[in-house]
Design brief:
globular, Alpha-Beta Plaits, 4 strands
Amino acid sequence: MIVFNTTFHVEAVLQDEFVAYMLEVFIPQATDSGLLTSPRLARVFGEEGEEGHSYAMEFIAADLATLEQWNSQESNRVITPLLEKFKEKIAGFSTVMRTIS
């Protein structure tokens, strides 16, 4: 099983709008092909005084080939509108992990 995690840092003023977009638009679009499953959005807590808020968006893929298929066939359709909507007010990085147990 492959865990695909993207951590986003969002300007504080956009926090509610970002969360709503992720729940109402991003997650349904990312999972509609069935290649990614088990979506989970979580707030990441960091150091006090940090500007903005961080969120981890996690999905499960059956294997690396399935994740690569999603990346090649689906990701642009899902990620491009997110970046166009929030522009430079969000930043993110992705991590791919294989579960051990």
